[in-house]
Amino acid sequence: MLNARITRISEEPFAVMFASISVVLTLVALVLLGILTTIFSATVLPTISGSIIGAFIALIILVVVGGFICDFLYGYLVAKIYNLLVTKYVGIQVELTDGGKLKEIDAIHTSTIVGAITAVLSLIIMIVLMSVLMLMTSGVSVLASIGTEITNATALTGAEAAVPMVGLFSILLIVIVAICSFVLSFISTAICCWIFNKLAERECPTELELVGNKNEGYEIKSINVESFLKSFGLAYVLTNVIISCVTNLFSAVLLSEGILDTILGIVFGLILGLITIAIMVYVYNYLTEKISGISFETGSIEIED
Fold first, then answer.
1. What mean pLDDT is predicted for residues 171-183?
2. What is the spatial distance between Cα 22 and Cα 72, in angstroms, rounded to a whole number?
3. Rg (CA), the chain
4. Partner of 247 at 20 to 30 A CA spacing, among 30, 150, 218, 291?
5. Closest C-alpha to 56, from 36, 78, 85, 76
6. CA gap 237, 232 in Å, rounded
7. Distances in Å between the alpha carbon of 28 and those of 65, 109, 233?
8. Per-residue pLDDT tens for 139-156?
9. C-alpha to C-alpha distances, 66 to 46, 70, 163, nearest whole angstrom
């Protein structure tokens, strides 16, 4: 039975942890890619292998630093938007035992607020991108206008005529992307919560080590890797598998691709997803020994008549 409602997520710890885990995963992928690049350059292009390796090291530094900043901002926005929305809406409701076992997640309310957060973030990103596009289009229009003034031409150039069309297209695209983001996030989150609840019913709840109390809030000090993989991790991966099955099988039929290749891709994604989630949990448990873990506050659930 649901017994707690997450009323607030601390922005800074959530953002730092989100960015740190993302950077570690990115660094692992880059190191593996760097090993392959080093082997390739040493065997195929030995004369310029030093330059390639040097450029790759610079790329790693740029990606890690830039990725941490971007992921920190993204994580901070996620927590901030949640804290703003939860004052107007129910928010995430869970069944959390005193021993730190997460046994149930309310699918409807969780899916709604996750979808809303995704839609808001999509709006922000699309507004920034479309603003840059409008700025570039307006710049081209200004240059075209200067050109017509110099040549004493009076006809409206294609760039000038495109500015209003780009503006209308941008507004329409922003709205469509926001709606699609909400719908897709709602569906995927609802499926994930449903699978999680079914797994938790089979004595596979997620075991958390919580520090704090209901009055002062909780900090997730560590996560049991095995229980997390059996419950939330498996639910998340199976959700992606279901979505991949629908999209990939549709693509296979539409594009006449091999069904076997599609199935192998789904199986590979399942295995890789579980490995990635396990690494994330191990990294989280390691980082909580050095920095603060994710903190949240809970409130009681108002039972409607």
1. 89
2. 9
3. 24
4. 30
5. 36
6. 9
7. 14, 35, 20
8. 666 666 666 655 554 444
9. 30, 6, 32
Are 86 and 113 a contacting pair, CB within 8 Å? yes
- Six token digits for residue 257: 């691709």
Q: Give this prediction's pTM.
A: 0.78
Beta bridge partners of 223: 208
The per-residue pLDDT for 155 is: 47
Q: Which among 137, 145, 182 has a CA at the least distance from the CA of 164?
A: 137
In which residue are the tokens 């919560």 written? 193
**CB 90 within 8 Å of CB 4:** no
**Amino acid, res. 38:** T
* H or E element at residue 260: helix 259-287
Each residue of 243-280: pLDDT tens digit? 877 776 666 555 555 566 667 777 787 888 888 888 99
The per-residue DSSP string of 157-223 comes to: PHHHHHHHHHHHHHHHHHHHHHHHHHHHHHHHHHHHHHHHHHHHHTT-PEEEEEEEETTTEEEEEEE
Average pLDDT, the chain: 80
Among 260, 259, 264, which residue's Cα sits nearest to residue 249? 259
> What separation in angstroms does the CA of 121 have from each of 127, 165, 251?
10, 25, 28
From CA 95, how far away is CA 106, in angstroms rounded?
8
Cα separation, 103 vs 202, whole angstroms: 10
Contact between residue 71 and residue 77 where contact means Cβ atoms under 8 Å apart: no
152 Cα distance to chain centroid? 52
Contact 33, 125 (CB under 8 A): no
| Region of 299 on the Ramachandran plot (φ > 0 left; ψ -120 to 50 alpha; else beta) | beta
pLDDT of amino acid 305:
37
Dmax (CA) for the chain in angstroms is: 80
